[in-house]
Task: inverse folding
């Protein structure tokens, strides 16, 4: 997999993750938001068990939430 350098596309993906997440999360989730934005930007699934990402547009979330 090619290394992806952050650019305007990643920053835009970060803004979309922040604006489209289902529930607001505490400031501790800031790094998680960047990871989710990177998954959206690279169009790859995110494996996470954090409910704040449950309804993020364009994010394929692989989780066991609610089971």
Result:
């Amino acid at each position: 997999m090619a290394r992806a350098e952050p650019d305007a596309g990643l920053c835009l993906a970060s803004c979309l993750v922040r604006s489209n997440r289902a529930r607001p999360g505490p400031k501790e989730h800031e790094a998680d938001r960047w990871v989710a934005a990177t998954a959206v930007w690279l169009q790859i699934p995110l494996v996470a068990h954090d409910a704040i990402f449950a309804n993020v547009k364009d994010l394929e979330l692989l989780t066991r939430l609610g089971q």
Q: What stands out?
A: Residues 8-20 form the longest helix (13 residues). The helical segments are 8-20, 30-42. The chain has one domain: 8-62.
